[in-house]
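Re: Re: ligand-bound prediction request (bumping)

Still looking for help on this. To restate: I need the protein modeled with KG4 bound, output as structure tokens. Inputs repeated here so nobody has to scroll up.
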Amino acid sequence: MDITGSNGIIMENRTDEKITRRTEEDGVIFMSIKNEEDTNAAQDNGAAGEKKSEDTLILAIESSCDETAAAVVKNGREVLSNIISSQIALHTVYGGVVPEIASRKHVEKINGCVRAALAEAGITLEGIDAIAVTYGPGLVGALLVGVSEAKALSFATGKPLVGVHHIEGHICANYIEDKALEPPFMCLVASGGHSHLVYVKDYGEYDIIGQTRDDAAGEAFDKVARAIGLGYPGGPKIDAAARNGNPNAIDFPRAKTTEKSYDFSFSGLKSAVLNYINQAEMKGEEFNKDDLAASFQKAVVDVLTDHTISAAKEYGCKKIAIAGGVASNTALRERIEKECEANGMTFYRPSPVLCTDNAAMIGAAGYYEFKKGVRHGMDLNAVPNLPLGDRERRFHGRSSK
Ligand code: KG4
Ligand code: ZN
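Reply:
Sorry for the wait, this slipped through. Here it is.
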């Protein structure tokens, strides 16, 4: 199955072992991402061909920010296809995501992504059991494209519609990566818009035990990267620059909110970095960008790691997972791994391409919601600030379809 055929787009060499195809069209990157394990399973079974009656296939759609994505996921864990159309190249010119451009690109790309996801999974819409879609949080115009697509598909096929919380999707990426992971576990969620410490009690049951009081971790990465001229997206660029820098060169502050709180605060750190840059510029002094990136990154990683490990100890939790775009950060992964080893804890982390936005994670979360009986109606709406962990809101927008 070749997703390039219908679009006439060029194949490129892959850079991540899970990216099985990477193509480009109008500055938009198309990627097909799968686990080796899932690819082998698909080859043995003929993709979805061997669907047993007890199997559940979810078609999942994600469009909350700047990635248009569609996936087919079997039983919440096995990825039959995972197509991402990334707009990063388009937004780079503006130094950040332009919501209007994102929405327009989603409209252009979403049908192609869904078609490619079904084709790669070797299935048609008839074989799907439910359609899962991210309905919040995120950019409202961007979310609406995915929600409208999912509603149209649900209406046309009569298949159930399941709205999914984007951050719950990020957490569920861990189920795809590690087929044996079961709740309860402690999960650090760090993305562009969220920094949460979540105790995952059971499938679909989340206790938020800490969250950011101001900037999200990813937001701090993006703002600092912009300030030192590294551009967008900031996280991966700081990550790369930090590899050449000294993390102990500059002693930036580690914010403590209160003694007993697991909340985060990154605005003080961000201001300290900006002050450092201003002072250097006022004095006409050069500063080492790599050292600054490494020192800033270490300050973020220290706080994220300390809170996560302390919370796991308090909850008597031996399993730690990470999720969200910042979870692909090399230093964070190394540091938490070390702490887990030292504390006899098991560390779960999705591979980097499953940390950043994708639809397979929505398919995993959607599967567990579907099994719990969650169904949404044709009045499902985009909810830009959808809260995490509130069971009531699962039925938000529900109607008798
Ligand atoms: O989860 P995500 O793809 O989208 C949201 O739901 O927000 O996260 C995007 C965020 C951006 O702020 C980006 O700079 C950050 O994740 N990020 C990273 C890395 N890769 C992406 N931050 C630090 N290190 C990275 N390697
Ligand atoms: Zn995300």
